[in-house]
Write a structure and sequence with these properties.
Layout: H1 3-9, E1 18-24, H2 39-60, E2 62-66, H3 81-87, H4 94-106, E3 109-116, E4 126-132, E5 138-143, H5 158-165, E6 175-177, E7 180-186, H6 193-201, E8 206-210, H7 224-236, E9 239-243, E10 263-265, E11 271-274, E12 281-287, H8 289-296, H9 303-306, H10 309-318, H11 335-351
Parallel strand pairs: 1-2, 2-3, 7-8, 8-9
Antiparallel strand pairs: 1-12, 3-4, 4-5, 6-7, 9-10, 10-11
Helix pairs in contact: 2-4, 6-7
Length: 373
C-alpha cells in the first residue's frame, strides 16, 4: 500500500470537540550554578507535573495535556555535555512510568520532553519529545531536529539514525488518535517551516510546540517566534499548542526569566487562549477537529493540496547548507563547534552567490542573552 493509499483507506469517526490543556509550570532546575546534580529537584518537578495532569482533568476535562521543554530538568547555562548526560533519562525509565500512571488515571494523552540517553549512541544526549497515551504507554517519540547546543540532533548522525529507526519518515512521526493526528516539535524547530510542513505531509493535524523561551525580543508576543507559530498553524491548516516554562524555583538567577505566553492557536492562525503572564498556570481551549477536517477538505486556498513538492525538491536537493552526518564521528560538540560550522556554511553560501556579503562586519551575537534552544 502506498503512502497516499494509506491515507485513503484510513477511516475516521466523528469526533466531538474536546479540551486541550497547556501547562506553564514552575520548574526547579536540576543544576544550580556549579553545584552537583540535584535528583531531588527532578523528583519535585515530576510530582508537580503529575498534579498538573490531575488538575487539568478535574477542572477542564482535558483529553491532552502538554508540558514545556525542560519541565523535568529545568535549565542551567554553562554546564557540560557530561553533566547533561548524567542528568538524562531513558524512555523506559521510572520517570515516564510515573507520568504514564498519572496519564492513565486521568484518561488523557500527555506530551512533554526529557533529556535522553540511548545505548545505541554512547557519549551523547538528546532533546526528546514524547507522547503518552491514555493507558500510560509511550506512543510517540520525536527527537529535536534543530539546535546549536551540545545535544545530538538526528541530522548529526543521519545515516545511522535513519538506518536504525526507519528512514527519513522516522524524523517526523505522527500519532493517529481518536482525537486527531498529533505531531511534536521542540523550541527552536518553530523557525524552520519544513518541520511542521513535513509533519503535516505525514498527516499531523495538531502541532505540539514543546518550548522553553526567555525574554529576548524575538520571543515576545510581537516577535518572530510568535509570528512563526501563527503562520505555521495557518499555512498547514493545523492547530498548534505551545507550552512554555513558568517561573524558576530555587535557581541561580532570577525566577522570572521566561516570557510565558503559552498559547493555543487554531488552523486560521488565531490565538484561542494565551497565558497573559510568565507565572505558573494552565490554559485550555476547545479543539474542534471536525472543523479542521472540513477546512482541509475545502477546495479553496488549500495549501496542502495545492503544494507541488516536485517544484521545490530539486532546489532543496541541490542546496549545500548544513551538512548531514556532520558530527557522526565526534560526540563532544557544543555551541562553539556548531557556530564554527555555521560560519563555514555562511562563507560557502556567500562564495556561491546565495548570500551577498554585507559592507560591515556582521554582528557576532556576543552580547546576546544565552540561548536555550
Amino acid at each position: 500500500m502506498s503512502h497516499w493509499d494509506h491515507f485513503h483507506h484510513t477511516e475516521f469517526t466523528m469526533q466531538e470537540p474536546w479540551n486541550l490543556t497547556v501547562v506553564q509550570p514552575a520548574v526547579k532546575p536540576v543544576f544550580k550554578g556549579d553545584a552537583p546534580l540535584r535528583r531531588d529537584a527532578l523528583q519535585d518537578n515530576l510530582e508537580r507535573a503529575c498534579e498538573h495532569i490531575r488538575v487539568a482533568q478535574r477542572y477542564s476535562r482535558s483529553k491532552l495535556v502538554v508540558f514545556p521543554e525542560f519541565f523535568l530538568h529545568g535549565f542551567q547555562p554553562g554546564r557540560s555535555n557530561e553533566d547533561w548526560i548524567e542528568a538524562s533519562l531513558r524512555l523506559d525509565g521510572p520517570e515516564l512510568a510515573t507520568l504514564g500512571r498519572a496519564a492513565a488515571s486521568a484518561g488523557c494523552y500527555v506530551a512533554g520532553m526529557i533529556y535522553e540517553v540511548l545505548d545505541e549512541f554512547p557519549g551523547r544526549f538528546w532533546n526528546t519529545a514524547f507522547i503518552l497515551d491514555p493507558t500510560g504507554k509511550l506512543a510517540l517519540v520525536y527527537r529535536k531536529l534543530y539546535a546549536m547546543t551540545g545535544k545530538t540532533r538526528p541530522g548529526d548522525v543521519y545515516s545511522d539514525y535513519t538506518r536504525r529507526y526507519g528512514g527519513a519518515g522516522s524524523l517526523f512521526p505522527v500519532l493517529r488518535t481518536p482525537l486527531g493526528n498529533l505531531g511534536c516539535l521542540v523550541c527552536y524547530d518553530i523557525n524552520f517551516p519544513e518541520v511542521t510542513r513535513c509533519l503535516a505531509l505525514q498527516g499531523a493535524e495538531i502541532f505540539l510546540h514543546i518550548s522553553s523561551e526567555g525574554r529576548s525580543s524575538y520571543h515576545l508576543p510581537d516577535g518572530g517566534w510568535e509570528l512563526a507559530r501563527r503562520v505555521r498553524a495557518y499555512e498547514n491548516h493545523a492547530f498548534l499548542a505551545m507550552s512554555n516554562c513558568g517561573p524558576v524555583l530555587d535557581g541561580e538567577g532570577p525566577s522570572d526569566v521566561s516570557h510565558g505566553h503559552s498559547q493555543i492557536i487554531d488552523f486560521h492562525g488565531k490565538v484561542l487562549n494565551m497565558a497573559e503572564s510568565a507565572g505558573e498556570t494552565q490554559i485550555t481551549a476547545e479543539i474542534d477537529i471536525e472543523a479542521l477536517r472540513r477546512r482541509r477538505a475545502r477546495a479553496s486556498l488549500n495549501f496542502l493540496a495545492e503544494l507541488s513538492p516536485g517544484i521545490h525538491a530539486p532546489i532543496y536537493a541541490a542546496a549545500q547548507n548544513w551538512p548531514l552526518d556532520g558530527w557522526a564521528d565526534r560526540v563532544g560538540t557544543g555551541v562553539a563547534d556548531n557556530r564554527r560550522v555555521e560560519a563555514e556554511v555562511i562563507a560557502d553560501l556567500t562564495r556561491r552567490g546565495v548570500l551577498t556579503a554585507p559592507q560591515r562586519a556582521p554582528d557576532t551575537g556576543a552580547g546576546r542573552l544565552p540561548q536555550q534552544e
